Structures are given as C-alpha cells and as structure tokens.
C-alpha cells in the first residue's frame, strides 16, 4: 500500500478549521466543567450532609457511565422528553462540561484534603477565620496538587472530544472522516487529524509543565 | 491574676474517655510543664485550651474570656493564645518574614510597616534575622521551630502553649529551641509546656503537672515532684525515663 498525500491537500483548510471548532467547545466545556466542579468540591468538603450526598452521588453517576451514553441521552433523549430541539454544540458542552465537573470536583477535593492537617491547625491557632485560611493558606498549597491533575483532565477532555463526531458535530475528528469518505481513502486524512490532536495535547502538556514550574516556590 | 482557668474538663473521642475531670488554675507569668506517658492525654489537654478540640464537658477561661461559653467568639479569642506544635506547621509557600507578618496583617490588620518591624525584632530575638527571606523548607528543624515560636509571638499572645516542641528535633538542635523558650519564660510569658525534657521542666518550670490515663494525678514544684513524687504512677514514670 502506498500513501498519497497530494490528494488531501485541497481538504487541508477544511480540516484545519476543525481545530477551532474542536477547541471552541472544549474550552467552553472546560470552563463550564471547572465552575461546576469547584462548586461540587465545596459541597464535598462542607459540613452540610445533603450537599455532600448530592455531590458524591453526582460524581458516582457521571464517572460510572460511558461518556458517549451521557452525550446520547442529552442529544437524543432530552428532545423526545421535552420537545426542545437541542443543538449538537449545546449537547456537546452539556455532556462534556457535566461529565468533566465530576472529575474536576474529585481532583479539587483530593487536592485540598492532601494539604497537611497541621496547616489548618496552625492557621486556626493564630485566629485566622475559615474563609481567609482557605484563600491564603490552604488553596495555594492545594493548587500544587490540583493543577497537574487538572491539566491531565483537560488533555483527556481534548482527546475524548472526538466522541461528538457521533452526533454529527463537525469537529476535527468528523472532518477527517468526511474527507476520507470523499476520497475513498481514510488513512491520510485520519493520520492528518491524528497529528493535529497530538500537537494540541503536546501544547497543553507544555503549558502544564510551565505552570507547575511556576508553582514550585518554597520546595 | 489567673490567665488559664480550667474547671472539670472532660474530653471523649467516642467511647474513649481521654480527659477526666481536669481542673487547674495558672497565674500570669507562670510556667507549667505537663508530663506523662504517651497517650495520657497531654496533647488533647493543650488543644482543649484553644479549642482545637471541643471539650465534652467543663469550663475553660483564658485571659478572662470564657471560651466554652457558646456566645464567645472563639476565633477572636485564639488570637491571644499562641501555640507551638511538635511538627512546626510553618506555611511552606510563605517566606520566614511572611510567616511572621501574615496573621498580624490579615487578622489584626496592622500596617505592613508595623508588622514587618515587629517581625524583624522577633527574628532577631530568636537569632534568625539572616533567614527572613528564606522559605521554611530550606531551614533546619531547630530553625523552623524558632520561626514557629516567633510566628506565635507575632500576635502578642497572653499565653503560649507548647506541644512537645523539641520532640521532632535532632539532639543537637534541642538546646537552641530550649534557650529561646527559657528566654521567653524569663520575660514573664505565661507558658504551658508539654515536654519530655526533664531538664527544662526542672530548671524553668514553676510547676509540674503529671497526667496519666486522662487523670491529673499529681502536681507540685519541680524540685519536689522530681525528688519525691507522691504517687506510685509518677514514681513508675520517672523511674522509666530518668
Ligand atoms: N482526634 C482524635 N480522634 C480520636 N482519638 C484521639 C484523637 N486525638 C487523640 N486521641 C486519643 O486520645 C488519647 C490521648 O492522646 P494524646 O492527647 O495525643 O496523648 P499524648 O499527647 O499524651 O500522647 C489517645 O488514646 C489517642 O488515641
Ligand atoms: Mg502528644
């Protein structure tokens, strides 16, 4: 078998556009997931039982079922139930954001509880109020545990985002498939989008390394 | 004037009765050593005095404030109670100077200039002026503990609680920390010190209290307690460690 890259040349702009389409909903999903995840994490460390129960049940549900199923339920089942014709973009953001928030909440909770109990005691003994202690003492230290794991979650999300191709959303992955169908050759276009995904993930990893370096003050 | 007054203090963790009917009164400027076997409740007793542990029963008054009264603002009251831990618990992401200025700036809300001036004076007092811009993790254990003492003093407390401040240190660093504590005792600070350093208890303390299995078994002047303990349990304990 021989590769013929010349045939995909006319389709390159079409595929490159997919980068932006993918990034667009990945970024919105990450932000959405981060905000919901932070709230869930606060629920998890709060002293109010129903909030803790809700956050734990939520996490268990979203981590315990396939992402593609969650996407299908939002895209296919919700319109049948409510009559609201949900767009692929909105479904994608909802599925990925809600799913990601479960993982993010767990990352933040674990990061906070990994901070030495003695830090809380030292702050409390100095008369530092709870909110201030969280902001100035606990969270800056928790961030060192949280950010690397959070970066991993973002990388996973970027790769998993290819699942939206199954609901016809024209992301990077879907564009590779479309070009492959047009040319009756799949190898070159799929390899091409594969390289792009890999590049995106590399960039995210480098940003992660850089942030980690900036955070290692005091070690 | 009494700085610490504890009346009929009980503390249980579940079914484990850790402190049983402890009462004690500590005057201004007094240095009291708490000794006793491991697990006898010494740390729990100390931690009840600034309500790091919530007493199960009993009344605790510190510097005239009834801590166990539900209406008391405990967070506010803790400003006046310095505490030094066995494992230092310095804030690793702040420099030595920032460790000392943090609480005065954020809790007492003094000016930056004032907080830094006080912090520098305290560092001088514990002999660590040259470390002001270092991060805690670059210090030795003895240096960390001296910073921790200075940090507690930065809030100008009415009394200081020490929970085995030298137990986590290499032997050659014990003296530098004890020297700082002696200096503090001589300056008139009210101190409650859990320690295994019998030399310190003998030399510096005005009074020794002996805890065993959550009971305050015996108290007295160090010279009397160490040479002629009244209770069997204290005799056994002293035989084992001396
Ligand atoms: N947070 C806690 N939860 C449950 N049990 C505790 C806790 N802290 C201390 N204890 C128990 O209380 C007893 C006394 O502990 P502690 O006050 O640390 O003794 P000491 O300082 O004299 O060694 C021990 O049996 C210990 O297991
Ligand atoms: Mg102890």
TrEMBL record, chain A:
InterPro entries: AA_ABC_transptr_permease_3TM, ArtM/GltK/GlnP/TcyL/YhdX-like, MetI-like, MetI-like_sf. GO terms for molecular function: transmembrane transporter activity. It comes from the Bacteria. The keyword Cell membrane applies. The chain crosses the membrane at residues 20-43, 55-77, 190-211. Keywords: Amino-acid transport, Cell membrane, Membrane, Transmembrane, Transmembrane helix, Transport. Residues 19-208 form the ABC transmembrane type-1 domain. Its main location: membrane. CDD domains: TM_PBP2 (cd06261). It is a multi-pass membrane protein. GO terms for cellular component: ATP-binding cassette (ABC) transporter complex. It is found in: Cell membrane. GO terms for biological process: amino acid transport. Belongs to the binding-protein-dependent transport system permease family. HisMQ subfamily. This is Arginine ABC transporter permease. It comes from Halolactibacillus alkaliphilus.
């Amino acid at each position: 078998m021989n590769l013929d890259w010349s045939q995909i040349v006319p389709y390159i702009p079409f595929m490159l556009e997919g980068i932006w389409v993918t990034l667009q909903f990945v970024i919105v999903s990450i932000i959405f997931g981060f905000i919901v995840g932070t709230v869930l994490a606060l629920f998890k460390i709060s002293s109010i039982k129903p909030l803790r129960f809700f956050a734990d049940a939520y996490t268990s549900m979203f981590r315990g079922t396939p992402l593609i199923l969650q996407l299908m339920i939002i895209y296919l089942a919700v319109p049948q139930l409510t009559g609201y014709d949900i767009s692929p973009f909105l479904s994608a953001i909802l599925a990925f954001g809600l799913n990601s928030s479960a993982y993010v909440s767990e990352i933040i909770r674990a990061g906070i509880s990994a901070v030495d109990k003695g830090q809380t005691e030292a702050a409390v003994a100095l008369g530092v109020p709870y909110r201030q202690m969280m902001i100035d003492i606990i969270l800056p230290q928790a961030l060192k545990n949280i950010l690397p794991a959070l970066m991993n979650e973002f990388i996973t999300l970027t790769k998993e985002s290819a699942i939206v191709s199954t609901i016809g959303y024209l992301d990077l992955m879907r564009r590779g498939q479309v070009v492959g169908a047009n040319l009756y050759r799949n190898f070159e276009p799929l390899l091409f989008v594969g390289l792009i995904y890999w590049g995106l993930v590399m960039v995210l990893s480098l940003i992660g390394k850089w942030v980690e370096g900036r955070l290692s003050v005091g070690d | 004037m009494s700085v610490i007054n504890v009346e009929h203090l009980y503390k249980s963790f579940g079914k484990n009765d850790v402190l049983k009917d402890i009462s004690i009164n500590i005057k201004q400027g007094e240095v009291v050593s708490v000794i006793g076997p491991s697990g006898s409740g010494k740390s729990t007793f100390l931690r009840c005095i600034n309500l790091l542990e919530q007493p199960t029963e009993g009344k605790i008054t510190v510097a005239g404030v009834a801590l166990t009264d539900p209406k008391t603002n405990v967070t506010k009251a803790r400003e006046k109670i310095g505490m030094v831990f066995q494992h230092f618990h310095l804030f690793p992401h702040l420099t030595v100077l920032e460790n000392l200025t943090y609480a005065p700036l954020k809790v007492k809300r003094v000016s930056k200039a004032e907080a830094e001036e006080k912090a520098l004076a305290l560092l001088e007092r514990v002999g660590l002026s040259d470390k002001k811009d270092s991060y805690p993790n670059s210090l030795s254990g003895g240096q960390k503990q001296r910073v921790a003492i200075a940090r507690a003093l930065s809030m100008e407390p009415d009394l200081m609680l020490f929970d085995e401040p030298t137990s986590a240190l290499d032997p050659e660093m014990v003296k530098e920390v004890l020297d700082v504590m002696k200096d503090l005792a001589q300056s008139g600070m009210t101190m409650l010190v859990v320690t295994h350093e019998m030399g310190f208890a003998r030399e510096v303390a005005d009074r020794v209290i002996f805890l065993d299995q959550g009971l305050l078994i015996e108290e007295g002047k160090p010279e009397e307690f160490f040479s002629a303990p009244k209770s069997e349990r204290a005799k056994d304990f002293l035989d084992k460690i001396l």
